[in-house]
Specification:
Layout: E1 7-9, H1 14-30, E2 39-43, E3 49-52, E4 59-62, H2 97-129, H3 143-173
């Protein structure tokens, strides 16, 4: 539960120690899904009390309700292997390779068309944006309206650039 962290308890009277242990027990019950092991109470030669999740000689295991035993540690330090991938069921539908290639080609064509239209839209937006200084319209006698339209154009250019980038990425992911 403490995940290697240690809580040093200064010399306490019995009532304070019981209150602390009750708090630990309550936290253990509240965080039961997160608890991962045994909690030990260690008292050193100077009388300092320490709560830890590492058992050592002279430490006493505490019974904390709601705690869950920690998984067994591997002694060799080797990383745990990934679980084996699950096999698909025998009745799982499979697609013929020629049909899949046709689907991939159709998807590539659709994405290419979308990319061309988005690039055309981006070029038009950049031309209208004019490097951050678009031409003022007749209805924009108020400078705030002009700034609002400029900000809207800037956002549209950025969105369109992101769309082009995403479409190119999707196209590169197709086999």
């Amino acid at each position: 539960m403490l995940m290697g962290m240690r809580i040093k308890l200064l010399t306490m009277n019995r009532a304070a120690l019981r209150a602390t242990l009750a708090l630990v027990a309550a936290l253990g019950a509240c965080a039961a899904p997160l608890a991962h092991g045994q909690i030990y109470l260690c008292i050193d030669a100077n009388g300092l009390k320490e709560l830890t999740d590492i058992g050592r000689p002279g430490c006493r295991a505490l019974d904390v309700p709601g705690s869950i035993a920690a998984p067994a540690r591997r002694g060799d330090g080797a990383p745990r292997s990934a679980p084996a991938p699950m096999a698909s069921p025998a009745n799982f539908p499979k697609v013929d390779t020629t049909q899949q290639k046709a689907r991939d080609n159709e998807r590539r064509d659709i994405l290419s068309d979308e990319l061309r239209s988005e690039e055309k839209k981006l070029a038009e937006l950049k031309r209208e944006f004019n490097g951050g200084e678009p031409e003022r319209h007749g209805d924009e006698k108020n400078y705030a309206k002009y700034q609002e339209r400029t900000a809207q154009l800037r956002d549209n250019v950025a969105r369109s650039e992101k769309n082009v980038e995403a479409l190119r990425r999707e196209l590169s992911n197709i086999k």
